[in-house]
Every structure is written in structure tokens, then in C-alpha cells.
Amino acid sequence: MTAFALGQRWLSGSENNLGLGTVTEFDARTVSLYFPASDETRIYAIAQAPLTRIQFNKGETLNHKDGWQGKVMDIQTINGLNFYLVENPQGEQIIVQESDISPLISFSSAKDRLFSAQLDRSHHFALRYRTLKHQQAQFQSPLRGLRGIRAGLIPHQLHIAAEVGNRINPRVLLADEVGLGKTIEAGMILQNQLFAEKVQRVLVLVPESLQHQWLVEMLRRFNLHFSLFDEERCADFANSGENPFESESLIICALDWLVNSPKRAQQALEAGFDCLIVDEAHHLVWSETSPSRAYLCVEQLANAIPSVLLLTATPEQLGQESHFARLRLLDPERFFDYAAFQKEQHNYQPVADAVQSLLADKPLSEVEKSHIAALLKEQHLESVFQDLTSPNVEIQQKARQTLIENLIDRHGTSRVLFRNTRQGVKGFPRRIYHPITLMANAMQSETLKAQWLLDFLKTQRNKKIFVICQQAQTAVHLEQYLREKEGIRATVFHENMSIIERDRAAAYFADRENGAQVLLSSGIGSEGRNFQFSDTLVLFDLPQNPDLLEQCIGRLDRIGQLQDVQIYVPYVEKSADEVLARWYHEGLNAFEQTAPMGMALFEKFTETLQKVRSNLTALSDLDNLIAETKQARETLKIALEQGRDRLLELNSNGGERAKQLANAIAAQDNEAELVNFALNLFDMIGLEQEELGESSLVLTPTGTMLMPDFPGLKEEGMTVTFDRNLALAREELAFLTWDHPMIRQGIDLIASGDLGKAAMALLINKQLPAGTLLLELIYIVETQSPKGLQLNRFLPPTPLRLLLDNKGNNLAEQVSFETLHGKLKPLSRDIANKMIKMARPTLEQLFALGEKQIQPLAQSYINQAQTLAEQSLSAEINRLQALQKVNKNIRQSEIEILTAHRHQSLDALAKATWRLDSLRVIVTNKE
């Protein structure tokens, strides 16, 4: 490779879209390049740098950074830098330094490969063209970033992910009830933002016990590789002086660790994250006079990091003051006065009542109309109110929908708070409680329960039983007991196992034919794992508070559970466990219903409960406790129901549009186009493929692959499926969609590589003279711009096809790509090379004609993209500006950023270019 010098211009062969780079630094091993067109910096190992030195020869056209073009008259090299004598458009000859060349360079080696005999097979060219078409379609798909999750397609989750994920610097509170998937929602929002390249560096703060849950969830469901950070890991950087938080882009750590280590908290603050996610945010204690250390730590990070997602309990569980504290973290300028917030929330209650009438198709009272009119005072609602009483049902429904949508837009917190309830989402199975009272005898309590479990499992041979113990050791001992006593196939699952070991245990339990009948899990070990394929839960040990109980039941009772959940609780009569079980069931009804007020009641009655559990001779006290708890629960339940914010729920679940989004993704699952492309891609790369029935496939690397390492493929191979339901049932299978890293990186691999750039083929056609020459040209129209602008929405790398005959006529409209490709036959390399040498003069003429013909075609696509960008971005700006007048939660900074993006986007699109990407020479014969 040519020796490097500061200021030299080089092109990245693996990332052409970066534009032309400038050498900014180098040493004996590495070289750094800055790419001004895309505002990116890359560091390459010199020995393996995929770089091409850009040098212009006499007679070639050079693009100046000021926007003009000129013809190169002469070239000199001084100290490793090129200086060009260039004739500008005014006919003047001026010296252009290498550093003055435009970074917006259009470069392709297709012609060089053709004339230097570097030909690929015709089907490689076809794969390349199809890949480019798929790449274009995926960049423009509204489903991109939403469909790749390994989870069921739940409308309200998809709605939140699409709504929040499309924002610039979203700052929201996710407060769904337990079991509705807040972690999945956060992951989908994050994946959407990562796909759009709106964020690159993410910090997730969680309770210590949930670190592995998040690590597993992000990897298994989203293929996001996070790193766990703790003091031991950070200590490795002590001698280097580096900030450990700058060493990875996706980081999970325990919040308590940062709180107790101001040094690490400061390093996290200085590391430049652009997205912060905080789980269990309701544990951040705050009051106006004494906020907790944890709250202050998160507040400091939230003030510095543009995007913030807080996962928390429902506002009803939190209480208004605590709920306000969460909102204050998101927007301290908007939520600065708790008293004003209370007043504002109180004013929405009459409107929420009116919305309930609209949802129930009931007539609005005059009082309800006045409340709605007061909130929508800038609108003239007389005609809308009249339409509500129209005999035409369609007119009625349209009027109701118009009012509801306008009220949602003006809701006080609907833009920053998303909260779904089980009552609002529906579709959950029943929970059926089975108390198992064991008669006390000489045996220990644990032995009695183990004997009962053994007998129970013998009667449930065809069922999958999920057992939760309090301690990992209990689960291990139970597995040994069941195996030795009755040969029952059981597997354990606890926090002392590695993630891989837990994956294997989960897969063994999920296997319906040869798998374990029972999974014995510790309470902590099962966090983050859901087993909806099982409908039977045994609580061998009772969790010690209602939230933990709900988490345990939630392993089975989740969206996607198709059967009623059977809950078995064995306990010895007149024991502390019986007291707790009865209080949970009779006092809280926590086994058969979710209890959002459970922890509030637990805190209120915990002292009395512990006294009763300690004094088992006075069970009459238990009856009194249950009666008091039940009465308090009913009072709280009525208050919660009256306080339900139906406007907020309606905005959070997405309604009919959310269902349409789920249906659109379902229609793409397992589609033939994806399967055919993937199989063709894997075959071309050289992966060994072995079918395991119709729905899964084993991929294994081989020694004859086109590249040594295929992105995402494990050294030992992997089993994949295109079937979402199968992927949900068998976690060891990789779920392939257009969003999966193997497919995305496979597309990038082909599009940015040289495979298929130049090919030659034979067309047998008796109606054409033998030796007729056709030239198929694939051009790419693209823009080189900062990633954050997301210009691929408007102008992704777009392949444009020309099919030129001997005279330069474009036959692409008359002869489709697939029709032509299906009729082509291969040519031997020797014959192909000889024919290309003979036909070079004709081909050069056709290339020149192609350049002329592609210009108006490419420009039309650029013009369309500019129009689309102008319309789309202006519409969003206008919408936010209109909403800002009636809803204080529209941040001015968001509008300003969007306005700047519009200007930058239109400017970048105006500079869009096109380049020849690939070509295929076709020669005809009679037979």
C-alpha cells in the first residue's frame, strides 16, 4: 500500500457511503481518516485497511469542494501529496491541492473489473441487484426496527415503540401495569432509535438483581449486545487513565453502584451517552425538600443525556407526588411546581369523564360538552356536537373520533407518559388458585411439600410445571429428590448458573417431546424469563411481598398466554405460610387478580401481618386482619377506578392503528421473498445448510466461504427459523427477519463488496442476430450525509437499471430483470475475456450513452426525495407548532432540532449523486 501522508485523500472500500476521507493521523500500525461528508472518523490497521488512494489522471474530471468541476491538465506529487493543474469552467488553469477535492465523490470499480478480467458469475450479479433492491425497500419500510423482536406482536407495545421511537431525543415515562411488557417496549424504542442512528451510546441503570435479566432480554429479543459494568471491570482501567464508560457503546450497570461511587457516576456523566434507560424508576425517592441520593444521581444524568426512558410502576401505585417526581426528571422546565401539576391533573378529570361517554357511544351531557369546549376553545365545535346526534352512523363515529383525537393531543401528559392497564388491553387468561393444605406430622415442612410435589407431578405427566423456590439451593435439592425418587425429568434454573446454562435449561424445559416435565427455579433466577407455554405454576415457597408474588405469577400470566393459569400453593396447616397465603388470597385477592394497590396495603398492614405470622395460636387475629385488608382494598379499588385516565389509556394503546401495525408485521413474517433471499445469500457465501423440517435450518461455516467470518454466525454454526411462533417456543433458535443482524449485515456485505460488480452471460435467442451485444447497467443514487438526518427515509441507496442495445436504446422498461435473468446462460471465463477485449470500443460508447441517459432519471428520483422530505418534515414541524399552542409538553427544543434537520436534509439531498455500481455484458447466439 502507498505510504501515507497527512492530507492525502482515500476512499473506504467497505464504506463507500462515507465519501472521500482525509488522513489526519498515522503511525507504524494504524491510520486515522476523517470523512467530512458524513462527519465520521475511522481508525484502520494499516496491514488490513480497506482503503483506495484517490488519484486523478490527465483528462479526467475533478470535483472541487466549492462545487465546480474541472478537467485535469497535469499532476505533480510533492511530499506524498498530489497537486493538480485543473481547467475550471471559465477556462482558467489553476492549481488544486489534494485537500481541496470534494468529499462527495462518486466512485465505482465496475468498469475496471470488467476490463481487467475480474468477472463474476451472472447469478452473483443477480444476487447483488436483488440485494440492492431489498436494501432500498428495507430503508423505506415503516416497519423497520419494529419487526425483528423475538416476541409476540402486541399492538399496544408496537404503537408505543413506533410513536416514541420516531421522535428526536424522546423523553418518556413507561408505566404499564405488570405483565404488559415495559422492558419490551423500552427495547423496541431503543432498537428503533439505533436503526435510525438517532442514538449510538446507551446507558441502562437497573437494580442489581435485574442486571442479568436486562442483558438476557436485550440479547435474546433484540440481538443487542450489552456489557455489564461493575467495580471489578472498571478497575481494569485504573492504570490507563481512560474513562471505562467510553470503552463500550451499550452498557448496563446497577444504579446503587453508581450512587455509592461518585467517581464512577462522574465518569458515566462524562462519557457522552445519548440515551439513558432507568428501570424500576419508582424506587427513586423524592420530595421537594429531601430528594434521595439515587434520585439526584439519575437527575444529573438525565439533565446531560438527550434521550431518557423511565420504566416505572403505574401512577396509581406511585402516588401523585412520586409520579410528579418522575415527570420532573424528564422535563424540569415543564414540571417544576407540584401544586400547579395537581391542579392541572384535577382539571382533566371532567374531560376524562366526557371521553368515557364518547367511548361508550353515549350522548354527551351539556356539562360534558362545556368541559370539552373549554379545553378545545380554539375550535368551533357546534357542528361537531351536532354530528354526534346525526342519524348517519358514519357521521356520528367520525365526529366522536375527531373529538377524541383532539382531546388526546391536548392531554397534559400524554406525550411524555404511556400507561396501559390490563383492563384496557384485555385478552388475559383467568388465574385459578389452588391452596394445598398439608397436615402437620413429624416430617419437616420442606419434606412434606417435596412429597406433595412428587405426587402431584406423577398425576401431571403431560403438563409443563413451573416451580418457584425462594433459594437456589432448594431448587437443586428438589431436582435431585425428584430424579432419585421417581426418575422425573426436571431441570434447574437459578442465579448461580451462567446465561448459557440457563438458556439450555429453558430450551430443555420448552422441548415438548423430550424435554423436562418440570423447571425448578429460584425467584431471582427466573427474573426476565417468561414461560407462556406452561400454564401451571407451583409456588413451593411464597414470595415475601405482593410485588414479588406478582413477578412470579407474571412469568406465566403474560400477554401470549393461551390457557388459564393454574396456581398451586402448598403449605402446612397453621403455619406462617398459611397465614401469608390466606392474606394474599382473601385480603388482597393477589393470586387470581393483579393487585396494583398490593404494596400500599402491604406497607400499611405489614406490622400486623408479621405479628400474626409469629403468633399462630391467635388465628382470630388473622380473620380480623383479612377483613380490614379487604375493606381497605375495596376503598382503594373504587378510588383507582374513578381516577382512571381513559384519555391517557386511549393514547397509550394505539387503538385500531396499533392493530393495523401488528397485522402488517405479521404479514411479513416468514414471507417467501425473505426466505428465498436469505437462502440464496447463504448459498452464495458458502454456508452449509441443513433443513430441520419445514421451519428451521442449520447453518454451518465452511472452509470455502467467500469471507472467513460471516457477521453473526457462530463458529460452531447455528439453527435458525423464519417462523415467529417457533422462535417463541424454542429460544435456542435464531429468529430471522429483515431486521436480524445476519440479514442486515449480509445485505451490507454484498452491497459494499465487489461480488457481482461485473459479469458476462449468454442469451440464446433465435430472433436476434448472433453476437448482438447488450449492456445492463445498475446505477446507485445516494446521498452522503450525517446519519442522524435519516435521509434514507427519503432517498435510500436506490438502484436504477438501464439495458442498452448496440445502438444505445434503453430496453429496461420492455424487458424486466427477472425475465432476462431467467433466460441467461453462463460463459466460460476465457471466452468472456476475449469477447470483452474485442467489444471494448463498443462498450466504451455504451458507457458514455449510459451516463447521459442516467442523469435525468437519477435527477427525477432526487427531486422526488426532496419533495417528500420537504412535505414530511414540514408537516411534522407544523403539527408540533400547532400542538405547542395547546399542550405545554411539546418541547421547543424538539421543534428547533426538527427545523434544523429540515434545512440540513434539503441541502444534503440537493447534493445527492449517482454512481455506476455494477454491470453485466450480455451477448446473444442462436443456440
Automatic annotation (TrEMBL):
This protein's record includes keyword Protein biosynthesis: no
Origin superkingdom: Bacteria
Keyword entries, A-Z: Activator, ATP-binding, DNA-binding, Helicase, Hydrolase, Nucleotide-binding, Transcription, Transcription regulation
EC number: 3.6.4.-
Broad class of enzyme this protein falls into: hydrolase
Motif (DEAH box): 279-282
GO term, biological process aspect, one: regulation of DNA-templated transcription
Alphabetized InterPro entries for the sequence: DEXDc_RapA, Helicase/UvrB_N, Helicase_ATP-bd, Helicase_C-like, Helicase_RapA, P-loop_NTPase, RapA_C, SNF2-like_sf
Pfam families hit by this protein: Helicase_C (PF00271), RapA_C (PF12137), ResIII (PF04851), Tudor_1_RapA (PF18339), Tudor_RapA (PF18337)
Any one Gene Ontology molecular-function term assigned to this protein's record: helicase activity
Residue positions binding ATP: 176-183
Domain annotation Helicase C-terminal: ranges: 449-603
Domain Helicase ATP-binding residue range list: 163-333
Quaternary context: Interacts with the RNAP. Has a higher affinity for the core RNAP than for the holoenzyme. Its ATPase activity is stimulated by binding to RNAP.
Functional summary from the UniProt entry: Transcription regulator that activates transcription by stimulating RNA polymerase (RNAP) recycling in case of stress conditions such as supercoiled DNA or high salt concentrations. Probably acts by releasing the RNAP, when it is trapped or immobilized on tightly supercoiled DNA. Does not activate transcription on linear DNA. Probably not involved in DNA repair.
Similarity section: Belongs to the SNF2/RAD54 helicase family. RapA subfamily.
Protein name according to UniProt: RNA polymerase-associated protein RapA
Organism from which the protein derives: Rodentibacter trehalosifermentans
Lineage: Bacteria, Pseudomonadati, Pseudomonadota, Gammaproteobacteria, Pasteurellales
Gene that specifies this protein: rapA
